[in-house]
Amino acid sequence: MDEEVKEKKGFFKRLKEGLTKTRNNIAESFTNIFKASEIDDDFYDELEETLVMSDMGFETTEKIIDDLKDKVKALKIKEAMACKELVINIIRDQMTVDEAAYDFEKKKTVILVIGVNGVGKTTSIGKLAAQYKAQGKKVLMAAADTFRAAAIDQLKTWSTRAGVDIIAQNEGSDPSAVVFDAVTAAKARNTDILLIDTAGRLHNKKNLMDELAKMRRIISKEYPEANVESLIVLDGTTGQNALEQARQFSSVTEINGIIITKLDGTAKGGIAIAIQAELNVPVKYIGIGEKIEDLQRFDPGNYVTALFSDFDIKSDIEIIIDNDIEKLEPDDDLFDM
């Protein structure tokens, strides 16, 4: 087994373990729902309640229930047990990540990383920097969250750990000046990826919007050949609050992708589904631990498999996971036979 397959297999197992709290949160209800003798209003009400409990949110849950009703009617399904796999497939269909979503990794790119304090923003930057460098890319980091000395120091620590250069100034410096220095350095050094840490002052939207807009103008003027990618970092343990943060940030700046952290510590793992379904912005990375390799590309198929793997959806799921990780690629349909 080559290293890439081993890595995927290892991450899937950690993902499954990380989602244990979410599975435990909905396990009994989800299992009992499909013991119903028929599909009626009570069945749909209980399924709706269970999905909301996992923090999929009301809007996403309504989409799932409505889609299920349509399919049940079209397929003339009468018994609840007969639509268990159908429910799982519908949930997974709420999330799609096209391979083109990661094209920015192959270009000269400036990544603006946004998000409120405490969500794991700086740590995510450090992990991405280390991973990109391991792929042979020339990487540079910029500490443009100049309002917190701790943020600058933390990013410097990560630059040392990842073996990646950093552009930084003193606390209180103009963030845009840091960005100017960083894009100038990135261009001069033929950098592949420049990761920029930004302040998360969501309570002052006007300042935040002006600051991010100024950064983008500088990048556009000084480094026009670079692709600009904006990623928002959200804390999975905060559930619906994370979704609200994403909504607010998207109201002041363009967001190209989402990083969800701390999914190993939450019973609200359904939030990953809700965020993508409701914002129509792809979740691109998820974090399930403290190690560098615990931040990985988001695979919807694997995520749903890990979320529902203990609910006897298919008796051979565990065998597939344990013996043939290559069957867990995003294009595969584990639940269609």
How is the secondary structure organized here?
Layout: H1 3-18, H2 20-33, H3 41-53, H4 58-75, H5 84-93, E1 109-114, H6 121-134, E2 139-143, H7 149-162, E3 165-167, H8 175-188, E4 193-197, H9 205-222, E5 227-235, H10 240-250, E6 257-261, H11 271-279, E7 283-287, E8 295-297, H12 300-308, H13 317-323
Helix pairs in contact: 1-12, 2-3, 3-4, 4-5, 5-12, 6-7, 8-9, 10-11
Describe the structure in your own words.
The C terminus is likely disordered. The longest helix has 18 residues. Helix 1 crosses helix 12. The protein has 337 residues and is α/β, with parallel strands linked by helices. It has an eight-stranded mixed β-sheet, sandwiched between helices. It has two domains: 106 residues, Up-down Bundle (Four Helix Bundle (Hemerythrin (Met), subunit A)); 201 residues, P-loop containing nucleotide triphosphate hydrolases (Rossmann fold).
